[in-house]
Every structure is written in C-alpha cells, then in structure tokens.
Automatic annotation (TrEMBL):
InterPro entries: LSM_dom_sf, MscS-like_plants/fungi, MscS_beta-dom_sf. This is Mechanosensitive ion channel protein 5-like. It is a multi-pass membrane protein. It is found in: Membrane.
Length: 244
C-alpha cells in the first residue's frame, strides 16, 4: 500500500508537471504563430516596409529580453525532470549535506522534506540542476554486521559457534549471500567477534525508508537466531563447568 501511494504521488506530480509544461509551451507557440501570421500578412499585402519591421521588431526584442530567461528556465526544467530524472517522489536524497525526502516534483521547483526536522525545503530547478545530488534509492547498502560477545566462551565453543553461524548463512541463500567474514574485536578485557554479511534482497523501485525497514527486519531476525545459538553455547559451558 505504501509503495502504491508513492507511485500515485509520482503519477500525480508527473501529470501536474506535464500539464504545466504543456500550458506554458502552448502560450509560447501561440505567440510565435501570431507573430509569424502578422509578418506573413504584411508581406502578402505589400505593407512590409523597413519602418514597419522596425516597429514590429522593437517589441519582439523587448519580449525576448523579458521572457528569454523564462524560456531558458522552462527548457532547463524539462531536461532536468524528464531527461536527467535524478529522483522520484519518495526517494531519499542528500543535497548540501542534508538528507531530504522528495515530496513534489515540478519543472519550476521541487519540494523536499528535511529528515529529522520535517521542515519543507523548496529548490528552484535552475538551482537544483547545479548541485550534487546523491539518491540512496539507486544504491542502497545491504551490507550488515553483528557483534557477538564471546568472552565467556572457550576457544572450542567459539569455533563451534562460528561453524553453526556459517551453516546458518550458507543454508539460507534466500536471505543471505555467500560472501561473509569474521573480525575479532577487543575492548580491554572484552573479546568479541563481528560477522560481516550481506542481505540477499531483490527490491526494485523502492524508497530508502522501505529498504531500511526491510533491512532492520532481516537484521532483527538474524540477531535472534544467533542469540539462540550463543545462549546454547553459554548454557553448555556453564553446565560443563558445574559438572567439573
């Protein structure tokens, strides 16, 4: 439902932008046709003299001076939104060091919602096209790692635990890739091992928050499964020490 909502927002904004562009282009083309019709009428009636052309050219030059930047901005907005197309509605982007969610897209301006403060930021397309935009939708990081406190375990138990986690990662290829490794981490007298792995997720056309929510869900499931293995090893070690 959430993904459908974002798709509807994108379609609504796309249609709104297309209508906006069509109306503006329609006005520009209409004025050009009117000017061309007047000039053609003057040529056909023989009234086209130097003074008449000077009289017509003066307001045309003034109009070009006034509306030239507007036409340039419009063309730049069309190219940025429909050709460059750096983001969609709902994407998480980093602009000027700020994380912002795309709310609305237009050929004149784009509206963002700043993450954390939920403040609204409005960027003109002419300014936005000059900035470095990082879209986290196109390259979400599915790499993950979990630290395990194994200071209370014997070396043999640690090796067994690592083997069981390896079987867990290798045996569930639908959720994890086969590329993972171990790193020993020490903080004073505390000894931990960190397992680096990658979630095997095939999400397309999803927002950053949808991917983040899915990653947190898979991470939680993995932590609970590893926690059970770790508790089993700690209980086995406690039982063995009690018997001795």
């Amino acid at each position: 439902m959430e993904r459908a909502r974002y798709n509807c927002l994108y379609i609504a904004n796309t249609l709104s932008s297309a209508t906006e562009v069509a109306d503006c282009l329609n006005k520009i083309i209409s004025w050009l046709l009117i000017a061309a019709t007047i000039i053609l009428w003057l040529l056909l009636t023989g009234l086209a003299t130097t003074k008449v052309f000077v009289l017509i050219a003066s307001p045309l030059l003034a109009a070009t001076f006034i509306f030239g930047d507007t036409c340039k901005t419009l063309f730049q907005g069309i190219m940025f939104v429909y050709v460059v197309h750096p983001f969609d509605v709902g994407d998480l982007c980093a602009i000027d060091g700020k994380l912002m969610e795309v709310r609305t897209i237009g050929v004149w301006k784009t509206t963002f919602s700043i993450i954390g403060t939920r403040e609204e930021a409005i960027y003109p397309i002419s300014e936005l096209s000059t900035k470095n935009i990082i879209n986290y939708k196109t390259d979400f990081d599915w790499n993950d790692y979990v630290e395990l406190d194994v200071g209370s375990l014997a070396e043999e138990s640690i090796n067994i635990l690592k083997e069981e986690i390896r079987k867990l990662l290798d045996g569930d290829k639908d959720k994890f890739t086969q590329s993972f490794n171990w790193v020993a981490v020490t903080f004073g007298d505390n000894f931990k091992i960190a397992v680096n792995f990658r979630h095997n997720v095939n999400l397309k056309n999803n927002t950053y928050f949808e991917c983040l929510k899915e990653k947190q869900k898979l991470r939680s499931e993995f932590i609970f499964r590893v926690r059970r293995l770790l508790d089993q090893k700690e209980n086995a070690g406690s039982k063995a020490s009690t018997e001795n």
